[in-house]
Amino acid sequence: MPDTPVPALPALPAALLDALHALLGPRGVVTDQADLVPHLSDWRGLYRGASPALLRPSSTEELAGAMRLLHEAGVPVVPQGGNTSMVGGAMPDESGRQVILSLSRLNRIRDIDPVDMTMVAEAGVILKAAQDAAAGAGCLFPLSLGAEGTATIGGVLATNAGGNTTVRYGNARDLMLGLEFVLPDGSVVNGLRRLRKDNTGYALRHLMVGAEGTLGIVTAAVLRLFPRPRAEAIALCALESEEAALSLFRRFRDRDESAVRAFEYMGGNGMDLVLRHIEGATLPIAERADHYVLVDLASSRPDADLRGLMEAVLEEALEAGEVTDAALAESEAQRQAIWRLREEHPEAQKREGASVKSDVSVPVSKVPELIRRCGEALQALIPGSRPVPFGHMGDGNIHMNLEQPEGMDPAAFLARSHDIMDCVNAVVRDLEGSFSAEHGVGRLKPHMLADWRGGAELEAMRRIKAALDPKGLLNPGKVLPT
Q1: What are the recorded Gene Ontology BP terms (predicted)?
Q2: What is the pTM of this model?
């Protein structure tokens, strides 16, 4: 039986393509489908889209001009940064009508001011490059996450990314002072102000942060910098229970809240997968545990005795029976090795087999109940499945993931994805939490929004979208339910 022919993609009008080529130059318009392949599937492999063209403007002016042309022609646009979205937020659909607009060439750091403690970075700057540039100026840009070698400044702002240091420094929104962005019709809003206080009308920049590219396209941002750490201490702890992990967090917070840079929870199942699949990963404590936390302390004071603080708090927790064992890093290599045990959780799950990911948050006080109840409910839903909870206990954001039962067909397990997410979300709702903590809504979760954020709240979102994007051309199908 002959193969079914693949239908041709809808072509952009020749006059529009000519205008885009004239505006963006030979490097700015990509139509060869072979070159588009890396931009048509997401990191998790959940979605594969189609697109007639990839646009790569090299300046805000070029991007604005391209948006004007596309807006006039009625062509939908999907902004794309590092393409590390966990919810398909940067994916075109399968229609072949949506143009991808890459921010990769807007990659300059325009300014660093160590007195104002600010950096002006374009949207295509890789997060790790922004961290390195800040360090080169004797400062710290603290946003840190697993995809920081690929994720971009525009993407982390568009999704209001969280990461490992939220407990100390806040989400991406808290690290942004000013924003330059382009509206769907090509209008440019230049709000690159370095002010800590600026109460002059609506804070439009905050509409863009977390909107996932549905209201405008971030082109540059003024970012907050901090003094670089001069003292650090890190430990991996084995604990008796989820409640013991929360109790340990409270001990550190009550002793010196400003010293806690990260407090990361990991379950025994997840650690087992890391040790099984990640080459060179080793457990620095004597015996396996069902619960672990990574404690990361930092201070800009060179005389801060963080080692003494760490030892004193852990001694209290050991005497109380909360901590059963702990290992303190004695070198930079050991510090990196401990952090690697946490950061490799997603990759280890991927290598083990199929997994369903739920990025949720609850009040910090309810994190132990979340982990325990979700684990019980998920194992009852799919016997033999393995809950893999890990994440940011210090800010209430846990990745409540579920690994397939050993030997189960991956496709059959993934077919239960919505059942699994619903199971987790039922517990989250009962604990007054959120179904989307730091990954966003994207293409994966808009159907949940009406149930969780319905009524006047959702209607207000729809009105804002209609006011700024009346044609519905910017990142369609994301965030808001259709």
Answers
A1: respiratory electron transport chain
A2: 0.92
